């Protein structure tokens, strides 16, 4: 991830935000993605490992006292003009503390992609993303959904 900037900050001393991919707890990430969120249940542990390894940037949220990862965001980008935000979560018991807002801010505003066109797909948290300029796409946007079924890695 050379050349993509860095963030290492804290919220009230209780939580740290860090974009070091080596710090990501892949087991904890896979556990959340495979059991707690609607968009990631089809992924294997190896899928998650490969997605983190090939990400343009990742930002984790960690408890300062324990080092436990309690939130995460991943971005895919061409490194010049476009970025796709994915896998944003904060553990349920810690929501409502501003961690999600700070996490998206760290990824979208504080990093090297602050001037990029950002995209994401989400069924919820539209208010959170709206704070950072995310809005429904205009009519010129087209998308080819992923294929599903046997042999595609999806249900």
UniProtKB/TrEMBL annotation:
Keywords, alphabetical? Transferase
Q: Where is the N-acetyltransferase domain?
A: 15-155
Q: Does the keyword Magnesium apply?
A: no
Source superkingdom: Bacteria
Coiled-coil parts of chain:
none
Keyword Transferase set for record = yes
Instruction: Report the Gene3D superfamilies cross-referenced here.
Output: 3.40.630.30
Which Pfam families does the UniProt record give? Answer: Acetyltransf_1
**An annotated Gene Ontology molecular function:** acyltransferase activity, transferring groups other than amino-acyl groups
- PANTHER family in the cross-refs: FAMILY N-ACETYLTRANSFERASE, PUTATIVE (AFU_ORTHOLOGUE AFUA_6G03350)-RELATED (PTHR43233:SF1)
Would you tell me the protein name for this molecule?
GNAT superfamily N-acetyltransferase
Write down the species. Answer: Actinopolymorpha rutila
